[in-house]
Every structure is written in structure tokens, then in C-alpha cells.
């Protein structure tokens, strides 16, 4: 029996269409090696067409009342809920993470749809008293224009929705460039947006490489905002290039997130949080826990509890509900993970478990990596400073809480941190002194909710936040309106 592999298309101006130069690329299931489809390998010409379509649609979409835009997003939420299982399965097949996590990924999209649907009836600006009599002042949110969303493979539905839904409710139009490892999830999401009643041209999708499609978006004069999630290296490049044209750029990049376990912690609870945050999604989250900072009083005891649990994690195809940890996204990522393990050994860290590929019967050889734990890690080692983006956890022993705070804060990143303590004073101090954008008290480093700002300090981003009300700032321009109804010339700041 031969099964035909489907060919997918870009979505531009309300029409599905092949890349203008006719080129395609194949995408594969990282667990099984199965070919999942052929996707357009687009060029600048496709980007030009998509941006032109978004630019044209902007003139109409910005005038649609925001509550109506919100209603469409509400329908998107309903459709995503109806298709949750289907989307989760598409995502597990192309990305590898286990079904319970891909369902969670879709759920974040559903949550964001409903949340931003509500924003259609808020989009709060504000009024304040002004200095002069018979005069008013208010600040309003205007849409910015065409937004380019450049999204990664690790959250193939959630991250595009975090960018697109706030942008859409605010009246912007979109060109989405999904990661080449997970185009099908994005295609299905765009189909659902159309089904919900989004007008032609408001959302466009262009598949292809970062070098071609990403680059064309960054340089296009009609792209007003670039919202990028991905590696620090690529994000820095986006910022530098886009600076030429003074585009607004929102960057969401890496993390080197730590769980701190103090002597007074509930260790059972800590073990659960560490396992979930370090090895869930095969460690391929920007919020993943990759450092464990442990006070010496509980160091050995914690590792005794943690080690067997790590070794019991079941690797396999994410479609199997019994599996805990899916494959690594692709061969180059796996090579990078293993290279870091070798670096860690070279630096003198002790490899406690893992550190090698795992073979899973019947599945692609060389696509699984054993959950890995290093101890005797010093804070300045590369494995404790650089983002690995894989199932590798480095344990750093500290004497005091002060030392734990210093170690936590001394990396190039600042996304998420977590502390396990049963002492209210320590928790309170952690709130003040840990310098990440997100902090969890008595829970792991992952699991941010969409109604609160998401993002980090230092090299994690460039000062913007996604999600929550703060997420709207990236996609809106403040416009201030003064109305003088005195009927005469009144001069602010001038003594009469
Ligand atoms: C990411 O890894 O890029 O907080 C996003 C979390 C998820 C989102 C992670 N809600 O772990």
C-alpha cells in the first residue's frame, strides 16, 4: 500500500497558493521518521505578496469595531476547543512532545483567544485631568499596521496565538512565518481562523526558511512590527537588522532557569516540580529548568530522591499516553545537546545519569536523548551559563540563601526562576531579589498563564512582554487626544 504525502500551501490574501518559485521542503515526524508533508519553500516574492495583502487588509480591519474583532476571536476559541485533540495530534506528530503537553499547548491558544476576545470590549486607554479649564485629555490605543510573527517549533500553536490574537484584536494584520519543523500546526490554526470569519488578507501565512522568509520580513518597509520567539542568536540578528528601519521589535529568547531548593523545602514537592520543568517537553522550553541550585543541607537527600525518578522516565512516541519524554526535535538539536554534555564533562562536572542517546524500539534511531543530570557543577561553567534546550539539568550546591540568589541571577538570561521553601521570609525575599521576569514559589519554572505578562530580563528579551495586558503594548501605538472646548486659545505651561 502506498500512502501519498500531502503537499501544503501558503495562505496569502485569502487564498491557498504554492510558493511562487514552486519549491518545497519536506517535514518529518521526529519519533518515527515518517514524512508528514511537503511545504512551500518561499522566497521574497511570496513575502512581498503576503505583506501587500496584509497592508491592504489593514485599511479595513482597523475600522472594524474592536468588539466585533473580539467576537471573531471568541469563535476561534470555540473552534480551537472543538479541534483540540486533532491539533494536539498534528503537533505531537511534527514536534514530538507528548499528547498531554500538546493538548496544553492548544489550551494556551484557546485561553488566549477567549482572553483577547474580551479585550475587544476593553482595550483600555485612559483619561487624566488636564491643567487647563474646559479641556480634556485621553490616551487611546491605535493599531500599528502589519505585524510579522516569526515563531519557533516548541510551542507550535500557543506561541503564534500569543502574538496573533492581541495583534488582531487591536486591529493589526499579520504575516505568520512558522518554524520549518512545525508548519502543519500553524497551517491548521490559520484554517481555523478563516473558518471563524476572519476577512481575507488579515492573516497570511508564509512557510520557508529564516534565511529567506524571515530576512525578507525583517527588511520589508511595510512591516511595522516584528514579534520574534526563538534563539538568542537569531533574535539579536533580527534586532540589529530591524534597527536600520527603526521597526518595532519584540524578542522572546532563551532562558537558563533555575529551581532553588533551600534547606527548609518540602523535598517531595520539589522533586515533582524539578522533574516536570527539567524533562517535560524534553527540556525544549525557554522556561525549562536547566539549573538546580541546592543548599548543602538537603543536597544529597534531594538527589537520592530525584535520581530514581529521572531514571524511571519513559521515552518514546508522544502519541503513546504512557510516555513521559518524547524525541528531540531534530538531529542538529540532538548534536548540540550531546556537545554540551561533553563540554560539561570536560569542565569537570560529574555526570550522574544520562549523557547519551537512547534507542527506543521501533522508533527513529538517534532522536531520543536520555534525561541527563550533572552534579558538582560550578556556576561559571558553560553548562550552567548557556542555554542547552534539551533534557540536561545541572546541580549547583550552595551554602547559603544569599549565595543561591547570586548564582540564580548571574547568567546572561532572566526568564524564569523557582524557589522551594516553607519559610515565608525566604519566599518574600526571593520575590524581591531574584531578577527574572517570572518567579514561582513552591512550583517548577514552567507553566506561565496567558493573562499575566510573559518574558524576561537581561538576554531573554528586549524589554517587552507577551500575554496579559502588557502584551497589547507591542501591538498598539499610544495616541493622545486633547480637546479644548473653551472656545479660546489656551496655552499650556504659560503663565497668563
Ligand atoms: C516557551 O518555552 O517558549 O510557561 C514558552 C511555560 C509555557 C510557555 C513556554 N506556558 O512553560
TrEMBL record:
Catalytic site: 252
InterPro entries linked to this entry: Ald_DH/histidinol_DH, Ald_DH_C, Ald_DH_CS_CYS, Ald_DH_CS_GLU, Ald_DH_N, Aldehyde_DH_dom
Domain Aldehyde dehydrogenase residue range list: 16-481
One Pfam family linked to the record: Aldedh
SUPFAM superfamilies in UniProt: ALDH-like (SSF53720)
UniProt keyword annotations, A-Z: Oxidoreductase
Similarity annotation: Belongs to the aldehyde dehydrogenase family.
Protein name: Aldehyde dehydrogenase
Species for this entry: Ktedonobacter robiniae
Amino acid at each position: 500500500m502506498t500512502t501519498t504525502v500531502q503537499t501544503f500551501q501558503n495562505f496569502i490574501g485569502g487564498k491557498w497558493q504554492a510558493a511562487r518559485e514552486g519549491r518545497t521542503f519536506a517535514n518529518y515526524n521526529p519519533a518515527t521518521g515518517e514524512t508528514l508533508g511537503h511545504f512551500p519553500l518561499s522566497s521574497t516574492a511570496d513575502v512581498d505578496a503576503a505583506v501587500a495583502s496584509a497592508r491592504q487588509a489593514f485599511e479595513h480591519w482597523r475600522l472594524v469595531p474592536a468588539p466585533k474583532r473580539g467576537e471573531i476571536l471568541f469563535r476561534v476559541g470555540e473552534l480551537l476547543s472543538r479541534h483540540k485533540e486533532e491539533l494536539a495530534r498534528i503537533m505531537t506528530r511534527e514536534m514530538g512532545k507528548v499528547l498531554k503537553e500538546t493538548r496544553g499547548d492548544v489550551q494556551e491558544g484557546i485561553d488566549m483567544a477567549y482572553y483577547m476576545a474580551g479585550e475587544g470590549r476593553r482595550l483600555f486607554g485612559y483619561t487624566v485631568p488636564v491643567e487647563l479649564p474646559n479641556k480634556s485629555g485621553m490616551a487611546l490605543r491605535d493599531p500599528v499596521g502589519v505585524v510579522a510573527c516569526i515563531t519557533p517549533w516548541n510551542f507550535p500553536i500557543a506561541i503564534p496565538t500569543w502574538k496573533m490574537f492581541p495583534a488582531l484584536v487591536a486591529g493589526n494584520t499579520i504575516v505568520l512565518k512558522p518554524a520549518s519543523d512545525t508548519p502543519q500546526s500553524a497551517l491548521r490554526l490559520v484554517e481555523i481562523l478563516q473558518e471563524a470569519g476572519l476577512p481575507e488578507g488579515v492573516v497570511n501565512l508564509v512557510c520557508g526558511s529564516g534565511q529567506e522568509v524571515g530576512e525578507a520580513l525583517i527588511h520589508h518597509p511595510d512591516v511595522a512590527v516584528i514579534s520574534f520567539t526563538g534563539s538568542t542568536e537569531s533574535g539579536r540578528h533580527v534586532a540589529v537588522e530591524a534597527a536600520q528601519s527603526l521597526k518595532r521589535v519584540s524578542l522572546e529568547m532563551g532562558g537558563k532557569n533555575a529551581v532553588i531548593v533551600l534547606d527548609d523545602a518540602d523535598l517531595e514537592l520539589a522533586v515533582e516540580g524539578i522533574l516536570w520543568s527539567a524533562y517535560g517537553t524534553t527540556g525544549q522550553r525557554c522556561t525549562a529548568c536547566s539549573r538546580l541550585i541546592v543548599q548543602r543541607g538537603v543536597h544529597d537527600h534531594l538527589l537520592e530522591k530525584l535520581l530514581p525518578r529521572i531514571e524511571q522516565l519513559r521515552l518514546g512516541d508522544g502519541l503513546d499516553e504512557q510516555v513521559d519524554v518524547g524525541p528531540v526535535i531534530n538531529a542538529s538539536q540532538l548534536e548540540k545537546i550531546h556537545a554540551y554534555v561533553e563540554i560539561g564533562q570536560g569542565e569537570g562536572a560529574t555526570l550522574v545519569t544520562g549523557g547519551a542517546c537512547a534507542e527506543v524500539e521501533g522508533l527513529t534511531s538517534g532522536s531520543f536523548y536520555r534525561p541527563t543530570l550533572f552534579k558538582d557543577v560550578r556556576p561559571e561553567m558553560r553548562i550552567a551559563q548557556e542555554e542547552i534546550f534539551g533534557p540536561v539539568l545541572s546541580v549547583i550546591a550552595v551554602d547559603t540563601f544569599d549565595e543561591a540568589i547570586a548564582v540564580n541571577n548571574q547568567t546572561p538570561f532572566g526568564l524564569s526562576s523557582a524557589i522551594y521553601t516553607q519559610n515565608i521570609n525566604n519566599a518574600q525575599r526571593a520575590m524581591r531579589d531574584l531578577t527574572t521576569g517570572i518567579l514561582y514559589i513552591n512550583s517548577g519554572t514552567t507553566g506561565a498563564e496567558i493573562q499575566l505578562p510573559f518574558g524576561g530580563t537581561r538576554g531573554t528579551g528586549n524589554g517587552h512582554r507577551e500575554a496579559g495586558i502588557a502584551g497589547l503594548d507591542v501591538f498598539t501605538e499610544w495616541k493622545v487626544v486633547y480637546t479644548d472646548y473653551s472656545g479660546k486659545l489656551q496655552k499650556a505651561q504659560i503663565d497668563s
